[in-house]
Design goal:
Helices cover 43% and strands 13% of the residues. It is an alpha+beta fold and 612 residues long. The strands form five sheets. Strands 2, 3, 5, 6 and 7 form a five-stranded mixed β-sheet that branches. The longest helix is centred in the last third of the chain and has 22 residues.
Length: 612
């Protein structure tokens, strides 16, 4: 799916400001040079400067990541014979591999011939001794025998490469065959062993070689310049197994552009270097700071490489609140704003970009740019502050070590999706919900009513949860979202002056729950109260259900004795605030009653803690 050109321009600018060839081997996801792509090598061959084989080895999975020299054509290859530079599959490197394999769809002889012709041309213009060493070794034609003698390739009784994976030393995917193995090269120069995929001279030489090759010139829609155009745009954007592409034109039989354009370049012409820089920068940003869930990927960045908070990240680390602090909206806003500004201080005076990618499947088809925003750094922070202030509530979370913490702010978008649809939900529904919430955060729009209603309904039925902790977490999210849907006007502390019907009914339910809970604790019982068990019916028919709950309190009032007087006075005080017609209204309660319930119980818990 095509979604404008501004995101490519922003990514290309980010690449120009952040690329440094010396950082390719720093660990993590590297920012690749142009005309290079990410890959994994399974076999390592070490040569001397004369092209003699010194060692062959099977590369363990933890060390397989390799930077592959790619051409404008091979960077997005699928099944066509389009050779890379040095690091390649065995069919390109072994002259007579077809004699050692079962029948294949690919012409192995043609693949080796085209690869060697390209390597010949590269050697003619390059002075790198490492390239010449590999070229000299491959011309000898001994690579297959060296790998057999080293035990890396295994033949069956017929002299063909074995399909039995139990005999291999290679760490490859379950569906791969021995002939699919990639080979990378290391060369001894004097006393130094240099890896060709990290060597600056090899990288620079390959870029120079490809810039001389590219000849298809046209208008780049991103830069507005006449330049060499990209034919096949890169894949492996979100992960090494990702075969989806952001930009692609299908073959002419599928009528992707015919009827409006004569060629694919007329529909979308992008310069070769611009496309590679943009895709390499996006791959680097996703690997380093992107948010992933299923097929959805979201990344926030600025061109200066400063830290930018991702709106979908867990907000606990950024806006953690001190324990046992009572917050009003004003106090919470001050705390949230200070934490957000401090956490993102480097981006205030720069532009911030936010991009969301999604696809119909995990590793095939096309990637859609579902959202792209270019915002001033200060505006971006104000957007985050507004979201967290209007959703501000105390939320609980469990860290990876099992410890429990709390913070004041908005719930994480993933927690919202789980609260709306439950823990057993299809991944696609979670992804769609995250996309919708992301738009609400960035554009300041209201949370969709269906999400709010779904969370409120689930929070109104505590008996459907496996644990009290899960219900309390969902209850806090319901309060947060309902508060946001009403413009963030509700306080996080009990508003004793608020006399709306739903708010007062929520307070009554909380007081009934507290009274019965105190009686159960006094006798050592541990079970849900009648208020909790009847909460769902209470949310649907408050007037009729309250009568049943109130009658059920009689034995517990007797059990508590004088201690029950406090709760009875509180209930009478709330009852006196009702208008008679509103009290008798038996229609369904809104999410406001959950806010009142939560605040009333929080107030009582704090009073108890102070006494203790």
């Amino acid at each position: 799916m095509w979604c404008g050109m501004s995101w490519m321009k922003a990514l290309a600018e980010t690449y120009d400001r952040c690329y440094d060839v010396s950082r390719l081997n720093d660990g993590g996801t590297p920012l690749l040079p142009i005309y290079h792509s990410p890959g994994r090598a399974h076999i390592g061959i070490t040569l001397d400067s004369e092209g003699n084989c010194l060692n062959v080895e099977a590369i363990p999975k933890g060390r397989q990541r390799t930077i592959i020299q790619s051409t404008n054509e091979s960077i997005g290859r699928t099944t066509n014979i389009l050779p890379h530079g040095l690091t390649e599959k065995l069919p390109y490197l072994v002259s007579d591999l077809s004699a050692h394999c079962k029948k294949s769809k690919i012409n192995y002889g043609a693949a080796h011939r085209i690869y060697m012709e390209q390597l010949d041309r590269w050697c003619d213009i390059s002075g790198s001794p490492h390239i010449k060493a590999v070229h000299s070794y491959l011309r000898k034609g001994t690579i297959y025998d060296d790998l057999i003698d080293g035990g890396l390739l295994v033949e069956d009784d017929n002299g063909l490469l074995s399909d039995s994976r139990d005999e291999w030393k290679l760490s490859m995917s379950k569906t791969a065959k021995q002939q699919d193995a990639f080979v990378r090269w290391s060369v001894y120069t004097g006393d130094r062993l240099l890896d060709t995929w990290y060597d600056k001279d090899v990288i620079g030489s390959w870029i120079d070689y490809n810039q001389q090759l590219d000849s298809k010139v046209g208008l780049c829609y991103v830069t507005g310049k006449i330049t060499t155009l990209m034919h096949k745009h890169p894949k492996e954007i979100r992960s090494p197994a990702d075969n989806c592409k952001i930009i692609s034109s299908s073959d002419k039989s599928e009528f992707t552009y015919r009827g409006r354009f004569e060629t694919a370049e007329q529909a979308c012409g992008i310069g070769s270097e611009t496309s590679q820089k943009a895709h390499n920068a996006l791959r680097w940003l996703i690997g380093r700071q992107g948010y992933r869930h299923g097929t959805l990927c979201v990344v926030a960045w600025n061109t200066a490489d400063a830290h930018v908070m991702n709106p979908l990240d867990d907000p606990y680390e950024m806006i953690e609140a001190p324990e046992n602090v009572v917050y009003t909206n004003v106090a919470a806003a001050k705390h949230i704003n200070n934490r957000i500004r401090g956490y993102n201080s480097e981006i205030i005076d720069s532009n911030v970009y936010l991009m969301a990618l999604d696809s119909a499947s995990e590793n095939k088809g096309r990637i859609a740019v579902t959202l792209f925003r270019d915002k001033d750094g200060s505006d971006f922070l104000e957007t985050l502050e507004r979201w967290h202030n209007q959703c501000a509530w105390r939320h609980n979370r469990v860290s990876s070590d099992g410890s429990r913490h709390s913070y004041i702010g908005a719930p994480s978008p993933k927690d919202i999706a789980m609260a709306a649809y439950g823990p057993i939900v299809h991944e696609r529904l979670v992804t769609v919900t995250l996309n919708r919430i992301l738009s609400c955060i960035i554009d300041g729009t209201q949370i969709p009513v269906d999400i709010v209603e779904s969370v409120v309904r689930r929070a109104s039925n505590p008996m459907s949860f496996n644990s009290k902790w899960d219900w309390q977490k969902t209850l806090a999210i319901a309060c947060s979202l309902y508060k946001k849907s009403k413009g963030g006007t509700y306080e996080m502390v009990l508003e004793e002056g608020r006399c709306s019907r739903d708010y007062l009914y929520g307070r009554l339910l909380a007081l009934a729950d507290l009274l019965e809970g105190a009686a159960l604790r006094s006798s050592g019982e541990n079970r849900p109260t009648n208020a909790i068990r009847m909460m769902q019916r209470f949310s649907e028919f408050p007037f009729a259900t309250w009568r049943d709950i109130e009658l059920s309190l009689v034995p517990y009032i007797t059990r508590l004795g004088r201690q029950a007087n406090y709760y009875e006075r509180q209930i009478s005080e709330v009852m006196s605030k009702f208008a008679i017609d509103e009290y008798m209204d038996n229609s369904r309660l809104s999410g406001e009653f959950l806010i009142a319930y939560h605040c009333q119980k929080e107030k009582q818990f704090r009073i108890r803690e102070e006494k203790e």
